[in-house]
Amino acid sequence: MLTRRHFVMTSTALFSAPIASFAQDAAEAVATEAPAPVIDPVPTSAPRPPRPTSSPSNWAAWDARVTPANYVPETSNPWGLHKRFLPRLVEANAGLTPGDIHVDAVARYLYHIREDGMAMRYGVAIAKGNLYEPGTYTIKRKAKWPTWTPTPAMIKREPQKYKQHEYGMNGGPSNPLGSRALYLYEGNRDTYLRIHGSPSPRSIGGRASSGCVRMVMAHIIDLYDNVAKGSTAILYPTENTVTAPS
User: How far apart are CA 17 and CA 29, in angstroms?
Assistant: First the structure.
């Protein structure tokens, strides 16, 4: 940055009196000029907030908070869901790989295939509009009470909703990923698609998310421990038929 330089000149005995007087007058004129403007320092950016956290010491209490008293997966329904969206053991189609997850986007069901030819079926919500991304994915990460950060695309699309969380949100019952999350990858690339619990259980059966598959928090707590990392999750197109008998 360029700054004003002041040069101070001193006269010597070699100057004649008129010249010395002229130099003195010039110096006084410079001294009476307006002072140089004060240039504010370049503002520094605000410090980045700390990374979001989720303390394991809270998990048991949070689990209890989102699980109904005397919980029975097949019948407990304080959320007012249609009864078909409650967990149910059904017969799986032949040839499906045990451990895999299949999401029927038409009927809004998630099936977790078991070793005995049966499947646990859960009601889900899928992404709204064209944000639903059918495909075959690998579950490479699992998390209990995960933290959450909206993607840049989400912030750009709905800044009034997501900008406030651009640096992330702590885990907990109000976190959009809820009680558990299964992270979907294509190869080593995180797709930012998740199968996760939701603090909005009444959205189950509809199209509500920004790309993910939502479940009731108590339901995904049941599912979570039975899903191994490395399992395949297949999200079927919305025009597909159901993957197992209903």
Answer: 19
Reported pTM: 0.77
Q: How far is CA 164 from the centre of its chain?
A: 12
State the sign of the Cα–Cα–Cα–Cα dihedral 229, 166, 210, 72. Answer: positive
The conformation of residue 223, written as its DSSP 8-state character, comes to H
For 103, the 3-state DSSP assignment is strand
At 149-206, the pLDDT tens digits run 888 888 888 788 878 778 889 999 999 999 999 999 999 999 999 999 999 999 999 9
Burial of 4 by CB count in 10 Å (0-12 exposed, 13-18 middle, 19+ buried)?
Answer: exposed
| 228 three-state secondary structure | coil
Q: How many CB atoms lie within 10 A of CB 209?
A: 22
Which of 171, 190, 194, 76 shows the shortest CA–CA distance to 125? 194
The torsion angles phi and psi of 195, rounded to 5 degrees, stand at -105, 120
Map residue 137 onto helix, strand or coil: strand
